[in-house]
Design a protein that fits this description.
The chain is mainly alpha-helical. It contains three helices and four strands, in the order E-E-E-H-H-H-E. It has helices spanning 29-75, 89-113, 116-136, and strands at residues 7-8, 11-12, 25-26, 139-140. Strands 1-2 form a two-stranded antiparallel ribbon. The protein has a two-stranded antiparallel ribbon with strand order 3-4. It is rod-shaped and about 90 Å long.
């Protein structure tokens, strides 16, 4: 095999034509630090996604409770003066309490939901950045 590249188990033989082996890379402290920070960034993004999904579940549950309270209010009967009948008073009070707490919960969840976006976006961007730094910090031997 004169003049042809010698291949041993899919790798080029060392020292041939003075070319470095492209599959061999060295790692330094920057590589490991960037890799670690990439994992931390991925965890931050994952925590943001987890919080976002939790908020979405709570929002759906709160909306269901509000719909049920609205249906209960539709069944409440009133006397000719517009007052709630005594036998429906407990249902009315319960439904109104649910409506009040439910709307407050929806407002708080909507405000808190916006706080998850920087964690998701920042974590994803930081993950990509640190991954690129880790890959580029490897040196060819």
């Amino acid at each position: 095999m004169t003049g042809a590249a010698k291949v041993v188990h899919g790798e080029r033989a060392r020292g041939q034509l003075g070319e470095p082996d492209p599959a061999r890379r060295s790692f330094n402290s920057t590589t490991f630090a960037a890799g670690f920070l990439a994992l931390v960034a991925l965890l931050v993004a994952g925590a943001g996604i987890s919080d976002y999904l939790k908020f979405q579940g709570t929002l759906a549950e709160t909306r269901e409770r509000l719909v049920a309270a609205e249906a209960t209010l539709a069944q409440v009967r009133f006397d000719p003066q517009g007052d709630v009948l005594p036998e429906d008073r407990a249902q009315y009070m319960s439904a109104m309490s649910t409506m009040e707490s439910g709307t407050g919960t929806l407002r708080l969840l909507r405000a808190s939901e916006a706080n998850t976006y920087p964690y998701i976006g920042g974590g994803a961007i930081a993950f990509l950045l640190f991954t690129i730094v880790a890959v580029r910090s490897t040196r060819r031997k």
